[in-house]
Write a structure and sequence with these properties.
alpha/beta; TIM Barrel; 3 domains; 8-stranded mixed β-sheet; binds FE(8)-S(7) cluster; binds iron/sulfur cluster
Length: 510
Amino acid sequence: MDLPVNEPSPRVVAGGGAGSCGARPGQSGGLTDAIRARIEDHPCYSEDAHHHFARMHVAVAPACNIQCHYCNRKYDCANESRPGVVSELLTADQAVRKTLAVATRIPQMSVLGIAGPGDPLANPERTFEVFRQLAQKAPDIKLCVSTNGLMLPRHVEDLCRYHIDHVTITINCVDPDVGARIHPWIFWQNRRVRGRQAAAILVEQQQLGLEMLSARGILVKVNSVLIPGVNDAHLPEVSRVVRARGAFLHNVMPLIARPEHGTFYGVMGQRSPQPVELQAVQDACSGDMKMMRHCRQCRADAVGMLGEDRGAEFTLDRIETMDVDYEAAMAVRREVRAEIAARLAARRASGPTPAVSSAVLRANPQVVRFHSRATKPAAPAGRPVLMAVAARNGVVAVHFGHAREFLIYEASAAGCRLIGHRRVESHCAGAESCGEAESVLARTIELLVDCEVLLCARIGYEPWGQLAAAGIQPNGEHAMQAVEEAVMAVWQQMLAAGKLTVARTGARRA
Ligand code: CLF
Ligand code: SF4
């Protein structure tokens, strides 16, 4: 399954996303133009791309060859998004049909990933049959796979054969003693191996597979699950080692452990990390390694933009009734892709933004207008400010009460950078009573209490008052504006008002 990887901490003022700070001829932000071209439409490998391009997973890989203490693939909740979870297992033919249907309906869907619910390389026949068919029928779709790495060395040549250009390996440790506390057993050479010996084999195969992929020029992202008290202090070493072996990105994701999931960690009461702990470990890992901060820990059957799941629109019975003309769809997909690429290029150059065409609006109706990237704020420098943003497709487009997640940005004189995202319960949609809405709001405020500003499209009077009382200033003045530009505009207003030369005031816990 995909236990998600990352991106430099992009300075938006300088070009951000896949990074273009201090670009030299032929390079952007340390990326060569060739690599930029390979990631610019991949929503996981490029932070910029995730505002514009969608991904989908097909759940064709039920079996797994290892056990992780955080995994229980039996648990499925349609409202939950976490790796390993699916609603419908597919055959290879069903998966191909579904992929073509989704790519026709969502033309900005650029990547098909196989990420579970087990391990794709523990189910090689189905996995490679999907890739084989799609390489022929839909050559414009990028193919992506996520694996625990145990069988990776054995399948590197297969991955090359079908032009799999992006591979994710979940690597939680490089020390078998740490690994033995995460992975109780593996299935290796027809027998079950346990404990430290199992972890040592897993680590060895992961590192060998990583080296083999890097040697073949395949972009490798490493996902690591942050498990407080188990591998938190160890992950910077993991980052250093995988970087040295050629990994392109590192994605440190928080452990999800709840008793109702029936996982070992959930039942044993292993806690998940707080957002500040996650950020601290991501920062400690960053060094010269690109870090991904926008991962959404997708389900193994996720469909749509990161952070949304349109899987319910593409169940098998619905797909049966859809007319799919992929030749015709490819023309629309080319048009949409070209327009997104043009807008991204314009933003990178901080030049004028081309008008949004009808094709893009059809594919992406939330995009009403799109602003060029923020310019570098003038001195004097003020202190950094954390802001929570209710966004869709890179735009401040979501009503506070409808938000299911907030992007967290840090704005400073150096520009703004994405710190991560935080999931919340929808204040309006989920609550069945006033009392319930109150407690949902209280939990949201608790989760965002380190943020000073909350940007959203609209917000009601009641939550406005409670957020402000907790020291979080709601702001609805930048509705439908590009997120980074809105964040920097607010920061500059605070700077001009003299609020950034003194420490934050008025913050209190909910
Ligand atoms: Fe899927 Fe993974 Fe490919 Fe992306 S997801 S197989 S690299 S197409 Fe992306 Fe989802 Fe995070 Fe994975 S946001 S869980 S990192
Ligand atoms: Fe679950 Fe671990 Fe296997 Fe992924 S690799 S399916 S998390 S047991």
